[in-house]
Amino acid sequence: MDILIYSPDGKTAAYETGLAEHLPQANIRGWQPGDTAPADYLVLWKPNAEVLQPRERLKAIFNLGAGVDGVLGTRGEGAHRLPAGVPLVRLEDAGMADQMAQYVSAAALRYFRRLDDFDAQQAQAQWKFQKPNRLSDFPIAVLGYGTLGAHVAKALKTFGFPVRAWSRSERQDDSGVALYHGDAGFDACVGGARILVNLLPLTPQTVDVLNANLFAKLAQGAFLINVARGAHLVEADLLVALESGQIAGATLDVFRTEPLPADHPFWHAPRVTVTPHISALTLRDETVAQIAGKIAALARGEAITGIVDLARGY
Ligand code: NDP
Ligand code: OXD
């Protein structure tokens, strides 16, 4: 079996070594320009068109991340580059759900416990009581109730927040998270929320979803936590909403242009926290183990999970 690994920076050695430990019988190579040789499996992140050329024996393409917009494009424009009939498989959790729950919980608790206000007071050497928020006044809406969104929503619930979540199709569980779906459920999910968390995949339906229209549906002085993709957010709308006070603060981990350009207004916007796409890192050991397990299952003729529905875009 031949496995071909592609990374835009050409650094594939650690994945080659890791996969070889799980699949000692496989021939594993890193992609070099001009490599059009057969491969049974492709493992990649943000591929160029050349690596996606139809390849003899190709059985599956594994994306080194949960989001596949790096393959399909922001509006699905890259889907035609995929070799016909070859499944695209995304990462499922692989250690990212816990990281995401930690990051979002930290940001939400910081807003709920008014730590930003106390930081501002400390800068003035002020010892001053601030009225605490009440959990019941702090509903959190989570957009996306998939692998990561559901884990995050349930983690937020453990602190006592009223948590709502939104998905495309109807979901049911006994977590206590109030579940909404589809266009009809959107307003009920986000209406009056004090914190909005975005964990949607980037698809033609979800691009620009974080916009002025949505901000106006939230509580006055709501907070935004965007940990999905930069192209979900209409950046100019957020700057206006911060200026007006409709949005009181934003924690942003993802951006339309990454790295965030040095002259971008988010760097210095008051009450905007910028992190460099680290809310949930791709953990190499967990990732390699998951992909190797799926390759072994496919080789045995078994079905696997995590296959992207190209029509839905995620
Ligand atoms: P999943 O596919 O498991 O979940 C996606 C969720 O979004 C599902 O609940 C799905 O609904 C819902 N959804 C999709 N489209 C729509 C729509 N049009 N309307 C309403 N709901 C919709 O993805 P993951 O949870 O694994 O990952 C989510 C995203 O997180 C990734 O696509 C990626 O962009 C981002 N991410 C960011 C990272 C970071 O470090 N910042 C790290 C990892 C991921 P349904 O349940 O009906 O299918
Ligand atoms: C992912 C990411 O989608 O790292 O996995 O952003």
UniProtKB/TrEMBL annotation:
PANTHER family: 2-HACID_DH_C DOMAIN-CONTAINING PROTEIN, D-ISOMER SPECIFIC 2-HYDROXYACID DEHYDROGENASE NAD-BINDING DOMAIN-CONTAINING PROTEIN. GO terms for molecular function: NAD binding; oxidoreductase activity, acting on the CH-OH group of donors, NAD or NADP as acceptor. CDD domains: GDH_like_2. Keywords: NAD, Oxidoreductase, Pyruvate. The lineage of its organism: Bacteria, Pseudomonadati, Pseudomonadota, Betaproteobacteria, Burkholderiales. InterPro entries: D-isomer_DH_CS, D-isomer_DH_NAD-bd, NAD(P)-bd_dom_sf. The keyword Oxidoreductase applies. Residues 107-279 form the D-isomer specific 2-hydroxyacid dehydrogenase NAD-binding domain. Pfam families: 2-Hacid_dh_C. It comes from Pandoraea captiosa. This is Glyoxylate/hydroxypyruvate reductase A. SUPFAM superfamilies: Formate/glycerate dehydrogenase catalytic domain-like (SSF52283), NAD(P)-binding Rossmann-fold domains (SSF51735). It comes from the Bacteria.
